[in-house]
Amino acid sequence: MTRNPTVDFQGILIYKGTRSHHLFQQQQASSQQQKSGAPASAMAEKGVKVFGMWASPMAIRVEWALRLKGVEYEYVDEDLANKSADLLRYNPVTKKVPVLVHDGKPIAESTIIVEYIDEAWKGGHPIMPADPYERAQARFWARYAEDKCNAALYPVFTTTGEAQGKVVREAQQCLKTLETALEGKKFFGGDAVGYLDIVVGWFAYWLPVIEEVSGASVVTDEELPLMKAWFDRFLAVDVVKAALPDRDRLLAANKARREQILSA
């Protein structure tokens, strides 16, 4: 059966199996957590809420953007097997995370939310490039990563043997094309983290997990030296590190998901 790469790829990383005992206890104690970056603006204090899921590489984009802007926010961790009434009310169309609720007004889809955050909180760290051409380029590469790279990486997780070797090479080729947007730069955004870094930033943390789970090697110093170096720089940024999920827990969830896929 033909799969939708984006949906399936999120299905891998946004774990839909049995919740861990630790997370169950967390949810029993409190279904909401307060997370904050730097001091919030007056607008943010009126109410900023993020509906996400702890293992979602799409939801973390929203947290990174808010933290870069220094916006205080309330985080609601969703159980995607039992979605809350609030999530379904705020996003009745796709019923997916992430959703940003700002002063009672919901915005869905992670890349759209990131752009909204940059426009709603104009002070502080700029996310989108100021130059119109550079903004267009950032959006182009973000779309390329979403449409091409995600689809190319998905089969690495779901295949074995010779078939996996073939898809690894295809994924590397796709990432090499994306890597050209890094040439001569510290980050995709230039000297500082920008829009494209936020969109593809999950590669830096989730891809090594995928590699460990699947036994594949995709991003190496030999094949993708600029990307590999960027992984280290991006993960060293304080606001990036602060929002990352526990690696052991993420690894366990993805191992279980891969086993489930391969045994189906």
From TrEMBL:
<dbReference type="InterPro" id="IPR004046">
    <property type="entry name" value="GST_C"/>
</dbReference>
<dbReference type="Pfam" id="PF02798">
    <property type="entry name" value="GST_N"/>
</dbReference>
<dbReference type="Pfam" id="PF00043">
    <property type="entry name" value="GST_C"/>
</dbReference>
<feature type="domain" description="GST N-terminal">
    <location>
        <begin position="46"/>
        <end position="125"/>
    </location>
</feature>
<comment type="similarity">
    <text>Belongs to the GST superfamily.</text>
</comment>
<dbReference type="InterPro" id="IPR045074">
    <property type="entry name" value="GST_C_Tau"/>
</dbReference>
<dbReference type="InterPro" id="IPR010987">
    <property type="entry name" value="Glutathione-S-Trfase_C-like"/>
</dbReference>
<dbReference type="InterPro" id="IPR045073">
    <property type="entry name" value="Omega/Tau-like"/>
</dbReference>
<protein>
    <recommendedName>
        <fullName>glutathione transferase</fullName>
        <ecNumber>2.5.1.18</ecNumber>
    </recommendedName>
</protein>
<feature type="domain" description="GST C-terminal">
    <location>
        <begin position="131"/>
        <end position="262"/>
    </location>
</feature>
<dbReference type="GO" id="GO:0004364">
    <property type="term" value="F:glutathione transferase activity"/>
</dbReference>
<dbReference type="InterPro" id="IPR004045">
    <property type="entry name" value="Glutathione_S-Trfase_N"/>
</dbReference>
<dbReference type="InterPro" id="IPR040079">
    <property type="entry name" value="Glutathione_S-Trfase"/>
</dbReference>
<dbReference type="InterPro" id="IPR036282">
    <property type="entry name" value="Glutathione-S-Trfase_C_sf"/>
</dbReference>
<keyword id="KW-0808">Transferase</keyword>
<dbReference type="InterPro" id="IPR036249">
    <property type="entry name" value="Thioredoxin-like_sf"/>
</dbReference>
